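Translate structure to sequence.
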């Protein structure tokens, strides 16, 4: 009986010991993914900022304003994800995003819609119909919004939606941010000619009418992210952002005008919410990648020890082996 129990315990010990590395290195990469239905809202501010005021009664002027607000929303499009998955043959996430910029008076300055399509597990871009920025078809290379799970200490390629280009974003070091170990990244986009937004803040003015005047829009930014490496989620983001309108004499009465300039940062309440959300998600991933494998190893070791103990007890000298003694034979004189 003891030998049978020791064999059963040995089988469980082998099972749990084998499951530990399988769970950590195999299943983690194949099970953990971004949910297709995710919704997220983020509010960023530039305080103070320089802004082109289109509503001044004396004419369009460059002004210093106390605050410019940028509201970013990401909404998972489940229906489109399922359509693309059927042809792509893998789990796909479709995010419909909107960056809405408003001045201190609450009026719209600009708004840029996007559709970002990517692999749910690796965060690599997936090219499919509908991938766009402000209505223009694009073919993204590199990441945007979300770093991959298990982010590494290295440079990545990051897509810039304003310039419609992919450029390196450089790893700058490891820091502690509100109790989380994070990797900092930095990207600089030099002055680049970019397209006018499809929706302009002045009624009757379109990108086509602006183009006829010869006016052009230029943009540069220094983009900074602090990323929690296990989840690949940015917990903090900032941009030192500047836009100019050049060859603007016909429309604005000046050769060059600053359309927007400011240091954009996440608002404190959204920063607190983001950190809390990332900590919660990190705990779930740690359970699968670290806590459960460690528990399985300990359980496997304990079961193995108990199995060997029972096996040794079953072989102890002087104890019955469980086999009946042979019947005595008659002896003749």
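Result:
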């Amino acid at each position: 009986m003891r030998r049978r129990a020791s064999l059963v315990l040995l089988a469980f010990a082998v099972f749990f010991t084998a499951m530990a590395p399988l769970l950590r290195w195999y299943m983690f990469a194949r099970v953990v993914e971004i949910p297709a239905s995710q919704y997220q809202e983020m509010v960023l501010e530039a305080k103070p900022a320089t802004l082109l005021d289109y509503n001044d009664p004396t004419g369009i002027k460059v002004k210093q304003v106390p605050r410019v607000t940028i509201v970013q929303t990401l909404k998972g499009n489940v229906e489109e994800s399922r359509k693309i998955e059927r042809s792509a043959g893998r789990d796909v996430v479709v995010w419909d995003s909107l960056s809405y910029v408003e001045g201190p008076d609450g009026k719209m300055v600009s708004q840029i819609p996007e559709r970002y399509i990517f692999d749910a597990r690796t965060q690599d871009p997936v090219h499919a119909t509908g991938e766009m920025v402000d209505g223009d078809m694009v073919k993204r290379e590199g990441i945007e919004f979300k770093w991959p799970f298990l982010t590494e200490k290295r440079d990545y390629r990051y897509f810039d939606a304003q310039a419609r280009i992919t450029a390196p974003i450089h790893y700058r070091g490891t820091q502690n941010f509100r109790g989380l170990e994070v990797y900092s990244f930095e990207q600089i986009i030099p002055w680049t000619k970019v397209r006018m937004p499809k929706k302009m803040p002045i009624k009757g003015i379109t990108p086509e009418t602006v183009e006829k005047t010869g006016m052009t829009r230029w943009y540069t930014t220094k983009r900074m992210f602090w990323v929690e490496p296990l989840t690949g989620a940015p917990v903090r983001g900032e941009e030192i952002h500047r836009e100019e309108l050049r060859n603007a004499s016909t429309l604005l009465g000046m050769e060059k005008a600053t359309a927007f300039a400011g240091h954009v940062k996440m608002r404190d309440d959204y920063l607190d919410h983001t950190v809390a959300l990332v900590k919660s998600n990190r705990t779930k991933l740690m359970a699968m990648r670290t806590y459960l494998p460690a528990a399985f190893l300990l359980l496997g070791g304990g079961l193995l020890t108990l199995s060997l103990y029972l096996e040794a007890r079953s072989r102890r000298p002087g104890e019955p082996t469980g086999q009946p003694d042979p019947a005595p034979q008659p002896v003749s004189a």
